[in-house]
């Protein structure tokens, strides 16, 4: 049972708002059906293959490398990329999909290369952070993928730490092809429906589109600020 | 710093802005890039007007029912184990935040970008309580390292500084020894701030959109610093202006799409982070404790007035990026952390006419702001409304308008007077004109030309030319 938090000062604050709005407090409001809903028109009717093309094109704009492969080749491609990037430390989620996609032996395959692979430890908080903070690559699966904006969506959970996609220098996302949807609309609606059913929203939902960047110095785009300096996506055909 | 920046009077601030050649160059090129980014993003969608109408409808419904949605939000935050504090004033907000930090024995606070924490002067309150407060947004950090230089833009706060100036600031204050290349400057910031993130006890964020239905707060960022602030420290405090809320995830999605396109022309920023409560049992990273501070600080006075729609603002800065006045005078001239058209409407409402009565006049009423606004706030109409109220309250306009407008209204009161007036003008003003521009005008024009050039009246007026052409054509 989760502890319930406190709300301080609420009634006087909200009473004042209602007063200024010239009415009594409202305790029930029906959200209207919005007159215009253009968000559903974007990439309407696109096939999964169309969406892959849109995603690949968008990745060019957001400075993100993208590869395509099939399940049986995934492990080979990842070990190849790890070597190519010259990485020595890799951190991954503790996520059953690693086993489903034949990635549980990454550790052994890379042991000859002096690469250390750390799987997110559900017990060791500080150790995970310390490892991730200096890791060369962080690897996660994508829980949902947005074609329009080149975005991978990550739902936090026990084995799915927030730091894996944040602290390492390179972020590598594995995108099962079936997770690709047109845009943010589809994911937001799915989460909204879950909330209506009374399901718990993950404590952290991250929509990640490429590497971190900034335009704070003379409006020049700098790729790589506090988050990863490089992002790579792998689309894997899971059908 | 509070909402007010600097102590100089309006005219001096404007002169400083006009004289700052680098700032003006930086602002105009930034405006160009922002603007084309927004227009491309709009064009790509095809039906941008429908998106704007949807944005307007969502914002209008939400603010009209703000008490309901804030209640729902707070219920859902507390259900997930977070705490909510409703602060009517800046002092109440700062007291609560300072107390939380003290209870946690917090010494080092890392912050991601938040305008409302600037508005309530939170950093100073925390520093007084003995905390170190570190800004982690690159632009905000640069300003902080440079002895708290005020922000000049709500999206890129250090817009008025060039890379050489930034290099010098880093060198003088932090012993930086590399070049002015933006990549090297950013790498330096990454290394310096990485240590701070890993040591901080408290993380403080702003909030782009709180989602009422699930008690979630969302952050729209590019650098990854807001994720650091909400991943590593044990305690997270989020401060939001009370209007920064949407009913459900569906509306959050629409407004985020409008925000990122209108602000920088991106389809989405690198990170949209939606956080619900503290970390759940069994999760390894994320905060153990979560506090949400909802700030009024003068906003509720705007509800129920003709200015209510300024609370629809989603802080994209599109109006700032198209404003011809901002382009010339820069952000510091507004004397408020909220510059440009939105600032000229909002600052007098939050800070009072006494302090900000000139701002509604720092506008040409060209309506470019209204046209650019992704949620269709009639900004230029609000500016006019301010002018009306100022005139009604004070019996006169605050700056030069009364005098110059009186002369103008005399000259334009009747066609006969206008004819005489505009016929006389070239002769009267000719002496002040240089290259057909009047830069140092007399009498009523003086105040105007201190800020910009006034086109010299043509010797041939349009009416005369028209008559002449008609005659020539034998009409």
Automatic annotation (TrEMBL), chain A:
Biological process terms in GO annotation: lactate metabolic process
SUPFAM superfamilies reported in the protein's UniProt record: NagB/RpiA/CoA transferase-like
PANTHER family: LACTATE UTILIZATION PROTEIN C (PTHR43682:SF1)
Gene3D superfamilies, alphabetized: NagB/RpiA/CoA transferase-like (3.40.50.10420)
Gene: lutC
Name of this chain's protein: Lactate utilization protein C
Any Pfam family: LUD_dom
Family in the record: Belongs to the LutC/YkgG family.
Automatic annotation (TrEMBL), chain B:
Keywords for the protein's UniProt record, in alphabetical order: 4Fe-4S, Electron transport, Iron, Iron-sulfur, Metal-binding, Repeat, Transport
Molecular-function GO terms, alphabetical: 4 iron, 4 sulfur cluster binding; metal ion binding
One Gene Ontology biological process: lactate metabolic process
Alphabetized InterPro entries for the sequence: 4Fe4S_Fe-S-bd, 4Fe4S_Fe_S_CS, FTHF_cligase-like_sf, Helical_ferredxn, LUD_dom, LutB, LutB/LldF, LutB_C
Pfam families listed in its UniProt record: Fer4_8 (PF13183), LUD_dom (PF02589), LutB_C (PF11870)
Domain 4Fe-4S ferredoxin-type: 310-377
Domain LUD residue range list: 70-295
SUPFAM superfamilies: alpha-helical ferredoxin, NagB/RpiA/CoA transferase-like
Binding site for [4Fe-4S] cluster 2: 323, 366, 369
Binding locations of [4Fe-4S] cluster 1: 313, 316, 319, 373
Domain Lactate utilization protein B C-terminal span(s) in chain numbering: 386-471
Function field: Is involved in L-lactate degradation and allows cells to grow with lactate as the sole carbon source. Has probably a role as an electron transporter during oxidation of L-lactate.
Family the UniProt entry places it in: Belongs to the LutB/YkgF family.
Protein name in the entry: Lactate utilization protein B
Natural source organism: Mesobacillus persicus
Gene: lutB
């Amino acid at each position: 049972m989760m502890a319930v938090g406190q709300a301080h000062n609420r009634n006087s604050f909200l009473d004042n708002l209602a007063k200024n709005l010239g009415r009594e407090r409202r305790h029930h409001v029906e959200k209207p059906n919005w007159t215009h809903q253009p968000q559903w028109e974007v990439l309407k009717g696109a096939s999964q293959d169309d969406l892959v093309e849109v995603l690949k094109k968008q990745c060019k704009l957001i400075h993100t490398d993208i590869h395509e492969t099939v399940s049986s080749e995934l492990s080979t491609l990842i070990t190849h990329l790890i070597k190519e990037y010259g990485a020595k430390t890799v951190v991954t989620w503790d996520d059953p999909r690693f086993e489903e996609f034949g990635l549980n032996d990454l550790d052994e395959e890379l042991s000859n290369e002096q690469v250390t692979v750390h799987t997110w430890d559900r017990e060791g908080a500080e150790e995970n952070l310390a490892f991730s903070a200096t890791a060369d690559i962080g690897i996660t699966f994508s829980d949902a993928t947005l074609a329009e904006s080149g975005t991978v969506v990550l739902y936090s959970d026990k084995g799915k730490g927030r730091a894996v996609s944040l602290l390492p220098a390179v972020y590598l996302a594995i995108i099962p092809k079936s997770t690709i949807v047109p845009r943010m609309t589809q994911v937001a609606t799915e989460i909204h429906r879950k909330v209506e059913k009374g399901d718990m929203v993950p404590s952290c939902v991250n929509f990640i589109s490429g590497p971190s960047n900034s335009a704070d110095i003379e409006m020049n785009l700098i790729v790589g600020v506090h988050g990863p300096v490089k992002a790579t996506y792998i689309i894997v055909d899971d059908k | 710093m509070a909402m007010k920046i600097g102590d100089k009077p309006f005219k001096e601030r404007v002169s400083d802005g006009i004289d700052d050649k680098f700032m003006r160059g930086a602002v105009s090129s930034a405006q160009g890039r922002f603007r084309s980014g927004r227009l491309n993003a709009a064009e790509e969608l095809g039906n941008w007007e429908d998106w704007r109408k949807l944005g307007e409808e969502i914002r209008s419904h939400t603010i009209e029912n703000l008490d309901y949605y804030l209640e729902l939000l707070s219920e859902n935050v507390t259900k997930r184990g977070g705490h909510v504090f409703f602060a009517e004033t800046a002092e109440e907000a700062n007291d609560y935040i300072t107390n939380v930090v003290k209870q946690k024995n917090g010494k080092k606070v890392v912050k991601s970008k938040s305008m409302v924490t600037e508005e309530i002067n939170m950093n100073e309150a925390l520093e007084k309580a003995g905390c170190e407060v570190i800004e982690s947004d690159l632009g905000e950090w640069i300003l902080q390292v440079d002895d708290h230089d005020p922000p000049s833009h709500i999206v890129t706060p250090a817009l008025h500084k060039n890379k050489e100036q930034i290099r010098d600031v880093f060198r003088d204050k932090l012993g930086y020894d590399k070049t002015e290349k933006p990549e090297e400057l950013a790498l330096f910031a990454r290394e310096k701030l990485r240590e701070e993130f890993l040591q901080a006890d408290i993380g403080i964020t702003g909030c782009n959109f709180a989602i009422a239905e699930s008690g979630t707060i969302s952050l729209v960022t590019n650098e990854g610093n807001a994720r650091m602030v909400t991943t590593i420290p044990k305690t997270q405090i989020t401060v939001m202006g009370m209007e920064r809320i949407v009913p459900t995830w569906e509306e959050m999605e629409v407004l985020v799409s409008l925000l990122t396109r209108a602000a920088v022309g991106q389809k989405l920023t690198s990170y949209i982070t939606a956080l619900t409560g503290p970390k759940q049992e069994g999760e390894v990273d994320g905060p153990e404790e979560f506090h949400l501070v909802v700030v009024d600080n003068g906003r509720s006075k705007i509800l129920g007035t003709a200015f209510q729609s300024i609370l629809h603002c989603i802080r994209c800065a599109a109006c700032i990026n198209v404003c011809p006045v901002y382009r010339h005078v820069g952000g510091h001239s507004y004397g408020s952390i909220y510059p440009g058209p939105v600032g000229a409407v909002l600052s007098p409402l939050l800070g009072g006419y006494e302090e900000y009565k000139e701002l509604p006049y720092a506008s040409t009423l060209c309506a470019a702001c209204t046209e650019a606004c992704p949620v269709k706030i009639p900004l230029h109409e609000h500016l006019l409304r301010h002018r009306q109220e100022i005139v009604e309250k004070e019996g006169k306009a605050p700056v030069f308008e009364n005098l110059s407008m009186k002369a103008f209204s005399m000259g334009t009161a009747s066609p006969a007077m206008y004819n005489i007036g505009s016929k006389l003008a070239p002769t009267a003003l000719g002496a002040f004109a240089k290259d057909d521009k009047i830069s140092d005008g007399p009498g009523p024009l003086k105040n105007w030309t201190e800020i910009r050039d006034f086109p010299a009246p043509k010797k041939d007026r349009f009416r005369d030319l028209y008559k002449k052409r008609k005659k020539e054509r034998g009409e």
